[in-house]
Amino acid sequence: MAPRAQWKGFLKFGEVSCPVALYTATSTSDRISFHTLNRTTGNRVKREFIDSETGKPVPREDQIKGYEINKDDYITLEPEEITAAVPESDKVLRVKAFLACSDIDDVYFDRSYYLAPATRASEEAFALIREGMRKRQVVAIAQAVVLFRRMRTMLIRAHGKGLIATTLNFDYEVRAAEEAFEDVPEMKIKGEMLDLAEHIINTKHGTFVPGEFDDRYEAALIELVKAKVEGKAIAKRKPPKIAKVTDLMEALRQSAGMDGDKAGPKQAADKTGSARRRTTKSRTCTSSPPRRKAG
């Protein structure tokens, strides 16, 4: 059975347009979930909104949005006022520009969706847009639309027989990288230490295969629930031991399989037969350092 579309509208660039449907690309429905219970009675508990002054529950019809302008001083907003203020969507994803993926820092990426033709009649126009982008190796930036009750800007790229549309964070939502890296000192690494690090990277070279990565947290929860259902004792796991690195060079040598011998990284690479550099297909979109300035 085909999945249910989360949104339907039109994809348009220039005078070319076609009906499209948007489907979620990820889902959390298969994750294990828990309910909150009363430890004494075993009954589920309900969440209530309580008045911070009176301590009494506030029914849904008496709840209203408020914006704090001063300490404990709010202006209230009626649902009708909020609805009237939000621009109406005409259900059109208008392509504003085509550009290279490397022009967009993936720190702005939010959530991805699958974009497919919504009708048989739209398949040719859809394929034209998709193959045009694929041939030119570009992505499309669609103008902001109201999607899931919010204004959205989307990055659209070719993917297999369809398109992937990724919502983008707005500039004000992305913190400047300088804020996170402010206290990181400038350091230059060179010589044998850098050669060893490069050698280790070469020997660990691989490709991204999503199925090879397990959700160990989810698996542990499933095993825990299974043990509880079967009445089995739950063994406590010992925390992993992580050795403190006191000699960075020695740790690099051990990682490179040199185990203390004084041979250089080139000799170590010859022993393992993995010094050969490999090339891989570049990602559809590559990451570059955030260009946003602090402040």
Features:
single chain; 295 residues; alpha+beta; Ku70, Chain: A, Domain 2; seven-stranded mixed beta barrel; two-stranded antiparallel ribbon; 9 strands; extended; disordered C terminus
End-to-end separation: 50 Å
What is the top-level CATH class of the domain at 7-28 and 86-173?
Mainly Beta
Low-confidence stretches: 271-295
Number of strands: 9
The succession of helices and strands, N to C, reads EEEEHEEHEEEHHHHH
CATH topology of the domain at 7-28 and 86-173: Ku70, Chain: A, Domain 2
**Overall SS class:** alpha+beta
Query: Strand share of the residues?
Result: 15-25%
Put simply, the count of helices is 7
Strand order, sheet with most strands: 1-2-6-9-8-7-5
Round the mean pLDDT to the nearest integer and report it. 82
Q: Which percent bin holds the helix content?
A: 10-25%
At CATH level 2, the architecture of the domain at 7-28 and 86-173 is Beta Barrel
Largest sheet: 7 strands, mixed, barrel
Which word captures the global form?
Answer: extended
Computed over alpha carbons, the radius of gyration is: 27 Å
Domain Ku: 55-186
Function: With LigD forms a non-homologous end joining (NHEJ) DNA repair enzyme, which repairs dsDNA breaks with reduced fidelity. Binds linear dsDNA with 5'- and 3'- overhangs but not closed circular dsDNA nor ssDNA. Recruits and stimulates the ligase activity of LigD.
Keywords: DNA damage, DNA recombination, DNA repair, DNA-binding
Subunit structure: Homodimer. Interacts with LigD.
